[in-house]
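USER:
Working in pairs, take the chain set out below, taking as long as you need, and write a paragraph about the fold.
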Amino acid sequence: CFLGWDPPDSTARATPDGATGTADPATRRRSAERRTDYHRCIKTMNRRGKSTQPCEYYFRVYHSLCPISWVQRWKEQIKDGTFAGKI
């Protein structure tokens, strides 16, 4: 306890290595938003015939926020056509 503040339960946030665990709702939302931003950016830039290099920002952000297990699951869902989000 630091100045009367107890950190949240360690199971309520992503693990530092991003491999396992859950995250608080705000982190989940930001993670999913950045992931969607990345894929929309790629789609838009490809449609316009422009470089996708500016989209790499979103890629780095969502890979740093999201546990690896989420990223792998999303990739599989997109590949299988079962991803619930609209890209």
Observations:
- The helical segments are 25-48, 56-65, 68-80.
- Residues 24-80 form a domain with the Arc Repressor Mutant, subunit A fold (CATH 1.10.10.140).
